[in-house]
Specification:
It is a single chain. It contains 10 helices and 8 strands. It is an alpha/beta fold. Helix 8 crosses helix 9 and helix 9 packs across helix 10.
Length: 216
């Protein structure tokens, strides 16, 4: 039985190139090609597919918002991201959202086809990722392991401040909530950035969510 695929990419040349490459494999059938997620959602109502090969960065914006929608409405459909974005923290967030695979756009043809087949093989462990991504995930996991098992555990107060930062409260609002001075809250912000090894507040919140340190 052939694996039925929908291909989503907003660059026509890339879309057609991937389509031509996949069609050479007799076990794969590209049933539809779209430039955006609106077309994708409409297309899913009209045809049955096994897998969606989804570009992450589209002209209409990032496609990650459509992932939970598809997973809820079409739980049997596999989603594989095919992107040039190799930011490992973003990749891990997407894997946590339930994508079944993450491949980089410099993936070779053989690896792409093998990954598609592995994702659709119920006996294979999920998710399926590029070799480079797998190596980055291992390094990140080791780093996270060191973080959680070092003397740098977050204190209860640091966790409180981190949770309120994630809720987008200002330093003044956090200070009023926890009966701390604004200067003290700013010190906590800097300490949290150092402990989580990030450069800004956005990165800190993303990493805190990824590590399960805050509730969404």
């Amino acid at each position: 039985m052939r694996i039925k695929i929908i291909l989503v990419d907003d660059h026509p040349l890339v879309r057609e190139g991937i389509n031509s490459m996949l069609q050479l494999n007799e076990q794969i059938e590209v049933v539809a090609r779209y430039a955006g997620t609106s077309e994708l959602l409409n297309g899913l109502k009209k045809c049955t597919v096994d897998l969606i090969l989804l570009d992450l960065q589209l002209k209409e914006g990032n496609s990650d918002g459509v992932i939970p929608v598809i997973k809820e409405q079409y739980p049997l459909v596999k989603i594989v991201i095919l992107s040039s974005n190799d930011n490992i923290h973003n990749i891990k967030l997407l894997l946590n959202k339930g994508v079944d695979g993450y491949l980089l756009k410099d993936t070779e043809q053989k690896e792409l086809i093998r990954a598609i087949k592995d994702v659709c093989d119920e006996e294979k462990e999920k998710p399926i990722v590029s070799v480079e991504v797998a190596n980055q995930l291992k390094k990140l996991a080791y780093k996270d392991h060191l973080f959680f098992n070092s003397a740098q555990h977050l204190t209860p107060r640091e966790k409180e401040v981190l949770q309120l930062i994630a809720q987008e409260l200002t330093s003044q609002e956090i200070g009023e909530r926890l009966h701390l001075s604004q200067r003290t809250v700013e010190s906590y912000r800097l300490m949290l950035m150092q402990k989580l090894d990030v450069k800004n507040m956005v990165g800190m919140v993303k990493k805190a969510i990824m590590l399960g340190l805050v509730k969404q």
